[in-house]
TrEMBL record:
Protein name listed in UniProt: Metalloregulator ArsR/SmtB family transcription factor
Pfam family, one: HTH_20
Gene source species: Saxibacter everestensis
Gene3D superfamilies tied to this protein: Winged helix-like DNA-binding domain superfamily/Winged helix DNA-binding domain
Higher taxonomy: Bacteria, Bacillati, Actinomycetota, Actinomycetes, Micrococcales
Residue ranges of domain HTH arsR-type in the record: 1-92
């Protein structure tokens, strides 16, 4: 995942309403009307949030009869989680090296 896509994804997830929409879509596809129900928002506002999520690759929409249900794009979330895990491993490695260095310094002082 390139840096631009990563920043766009994190930007899209920086809004609590969009996070809640992603959480709802994790349970299955939903229309704008269905996504509007738990929020005190208009359908237009929810549509704008969906557009941001679509642009970030987190959601896709399709035509099904007269509805346009939104679908969570799990692959994008998996890519983000892989990036986070890579960062976490890097920090754990640095922490381990620092811990070992401090242990050697303490041992040398004895």
């Amino acid at each position: 995942m390139n840096v631009q896509d990563l920043a766009q994804t994190f930007g899209a997830l920086a809004d609590p309403t969009r996070v809640a929409i992603v959480a709802t879509l994790a349970h299955g596809d939903a229309t704008v009307k269905e996504l509007t129900e738990p929020f005190d928002l208009t359908q237009q506002a929810v549509s704008r949030h969906l557009k941001v999520l679509e642009e970030a690759g987190l959601v896709s929409r399709r035509v099904a009869a007269q509805a346009r249900p939104a679908t969570l794009e799990v692959d994008r979330l998996i890519e983000v989680l892989a990036w986070i895990d890579e960062q976490r491993r890097g920090w754990l490695d640095r922490h381990s090296r620092l811990e070992e260095h401090l242990r050697r310094l303490t041992k040398d002082e004895r």
